[in-house]
Every structure is written in C-alpha cells, then in structure tokens.
Amino acid sequence: MRLIGMLDSPFVRRVAVTLELLGVPFRHEALSVFRTFREFQRINPVVKAPTLVLDDGTVLMDSTLIIGYVESTLPPDRALWSPDAAVRAHECRAVSLALAACEKSAQLVYEQNLRPREFQYEPWVERVTGQLLAAFGELERDVAAHPARYAHARSHAGIAAAIAWQFAQSLLAIVVPAAAHPGLMALSARMEREPVFLKYPPDGPGVPAGSV
Fold this sequence. Notes:
Number of helices: 8
CATH architecture of the largest domain: Up-down Bundle
Strand order of the largest sheet: 2-1-3-4
Low-confidence stretches: none
Largest sheet: 4 strands, mixed
Order of helices and strands: EHEHEEHHHHHH
Shape: globular
Strand content: 5-15%
Helix content: 40-55%
Distance between the termini: 28 Å
C-alpha cells in the first residue's frame, strides 16, 4: 500500500501513525496538494490528502474511511477501538471532536493566509474560531474526565486528539491558548515522545520548524 500526502496534514499523519500501530506495511510518499499538484493528480485525480493506494490499485480517500477499511481487513483484536460499545461511542465522539478541530484549524489558516485580507469575511472567521475553540474545549473536558481513554498510544481517541492539538498549536497558538488546555498539552507532550509519533513527525511546509 502507498500512503500519499504530506505529514504536515493532521489527516495524513493520523493515517500513518494508525497504520504503523496496526502493523500494516505501507510506503509513504510525501506529495503536496500544492507544490506537487500534477504528480499527485496522476495518482488521484481528486488530489485529496490522505490518499491510500491499495495493492490492487484501488484509491481510497478520507482518513476515517481509510482507517476503517484497513481495520476491517484485520482480526478484531488488532483494532484500536475499545471492544465495549459504550466506551467505543465515547471514543468516536472524541475522534469526531479532534477531526472537527483539524478541519476548523485548516479553514482558519486558509482564510487568514491564502485569501487576500481585503476579501476576508470577519463573521466567517469568528464563526470558525468559535467552532474550533468549542471542539478543543469539549476535548479538554473529556481528557480530564476520562484520562484512561487517553493513557496509551493504541487509542484512536488519543491519536486523533494529540495530532489535532499539535497541528493547531503549530499554526494557531495565539487563537487556541495552551494555558486553557492543560490536559491536551500533557497528552500531546506524552504522545509526541512515542516512537510511532517520532517516526512520523509533522514534517512539511505547512508546519513551522521546531513546532513539536
């Protein structure tokens, strides 16, 4: 399998870390949806990261769908979800909050960095910022209330939350104050020391050097 996309994308990084923890062999190809658009387009005409190319040539997109498909091909005991349905529901909620935080972070970065200032729409910026802070606020409360669910690396909730936090802090630290999120700060610091996180650092032009 081939994982296409830059690790400065939290969605690509989430897939890379998860596949490694699942013990699924893959080759990472660091193509950018901006700088290497044409090369990416030849692999996937939609040019969406992450892209996973299966051994038979099938092209998959979307981090959650990619991970879901891969886990469906493995024995249940290798999954990173809890076998308990009630706990798994809470884990799904945590992942959805983390992914929402990633999406809103990206929207805010694109609005502020790619759109000319005279065309930026302040009510939209305020709305996205509010959604971003709400997602991290809910995650922070969940980390504080259920620390065991984030206590080890083999957890979809912990992986998604830590990667989302690192991504936002690398680009929007002024918007998302670290002091207001001590649980996420501690989770990120611990997870970023894990071998699998060190193996797939958030390298790429979208993340400032030294942000981990």
